[in-house]
Amino acid sequence: MYFPTYRPRRLRKNEALRSLVRETELSVNDLIYPLFIIHGQGVKEEIPSMPGQYQLSIDNLGAEIKEIVALGIPAVLLFGLPETKDEAASGAYDEFGIVQQAIREIKKLAPGLLVVTDVCLCEYMSHGHCGIIKDGEVLNDVTLELLAKTALSHAEAGADIVAPSDMMDGRVAAIRAQLDESGLTDIPIMSYAAKYASGFYGPFREAADSTPTFGDRRSYQMDPPNAMEALREVAMDIEEGADIVMVKPALSYLDVIAAVRSEFDYPLAAYNVSGEYSMIKAAGAKGWIDERKVTMEVLTGIKRAGADIIITYHAKEAAQWLKERNCLCQ
Ligand code: PBG
Fold it and tell me: Predicted confidence band at 1 (pLDDT cuts at 50, 70, 90)?
């Protein structure tokens, strides 16, 4: 329209110019790295559908945490694989449960590293659903008590942030009340506020052994076509006391991230989920895409859409690449 007076290419001429006018800058400070913790000794089992990601036993955390800290990643998100599962998800709120043990160990290894815990019951339930089951239905209100107990046990073990991912209604209020009653008023809640019933969780369910034995999660996780509903979910969670809200998954929901960003002035996280990671790894391994370029493009895109925080399995490699770029090595 303004051509030839305005020539957008002028500011794309070289890297110095491009970096001068760059609107979005991905930083290692934005990243949270998920970890899968398992019982046993010396376990470092690669997750077949998530190359480069492992189930780790507690005694293997030392090396892992050292690497994460050295890369400057500020936070980890913990998932646990319990020894046994039951109909009450007892392992989720056991003082000596797998996540509780891992929290204490990580806090010993690196007190400054933020430990975020996924608060959910599915990994601990014999049926793999995120709540108590009666007559084939996932019950909402009775599940809240178990979620609150789980969040409390994580916080008591030393977690810095608790992150409920179950999608039961009212769980943020229940967790906030439980933490406050127990004197843990300073522990923030990062709620998976707009979490969709997504096919992109497939590889995670292998990693965390949390596939439901019957049915699916569509009666509690959100229906993918809905965006306005995401705003209601976020508004509710903020009202109930969420400190950070999340949209999940990220890539197929960038519009939702952008909408939440423009409606709410709360810190916003996006979860770059397992299937999004696996697709890049698979196409990269086949040589179909430039893995590094695509990864950074995806993470930057999530940030550009409006996320302040990105939970991603790419965190370690992205942190390394960001370091290399910052020193102008290439
Ligand atoms: C637990 C939970 C899931 C994920 C995070 N927390 C799985 C699910 O809801 O089925 C998915 C994370 C990923 O795919 O990377 N409810």
Answer: confident
Best residue among 36, 123, 210, 302 to mutate for probing ligand 1, ranked by most atoms within 8 Å of CB: 210
For residue 230, count other CB atoms closer than 10 A to its CB.
23
Rounded mean pLDDT, 165-191: 98
* For the chain, domain boundaries: 23-329
Contacts of residue 252, Cβ cutoff 8 Å, sequence gap at least 6: 198, 200, 224
CA of 330 to the centre of ligand 1 (A): 36
Asked whether the predicted pLDDT for residue 51 surpasses 50, the reply is yes
Name the residue type at position 32.
I
CA-angle at 308, arms to 319 and 171, nearest 5°: 115
Find how far residue 13's CA is from the centre of its chain. 37
In terms of CATH, what superfamily is 23-329?
Aldolase class I (3.20.20.70)
User: CA nearest 102: which of 193, 37, 18, 32?
Assistant: 37
Using a pLDDT cut of 90, give the percent of the chain over it. Answer: 97
Span 113-120, average pLDDT: 98
pTM: 0.97
90 within 8 A of 149, measured Cβ to Cβ: no
Ligand 1 atom 11, closest CA: 201
What is the 204 CA–ligand 1 centroid distance (Å)?
Answer: 6
The verdict on the CB of residue 201 being under 6 Å from ligand 1 is yes
Compute the average pLDDT of residues 72-86. Answer: 97
Cβ neighbours of residue 46 closer than 8 Å, sequence gap 6 or more: 52, 53, 54
Note whether 195 and 246 are within 8 A (CB).
yes
> Which residues are catalytic, by number?
195, 248
Banded pLDDT at 88 (limits 50, 70, 90): very high
Q: What pairing do the DSSP bridges indicate for beta strands 31-38 and 309-312?
A: parallel
Distance 201 CA to ligand 1 centre (A): 6
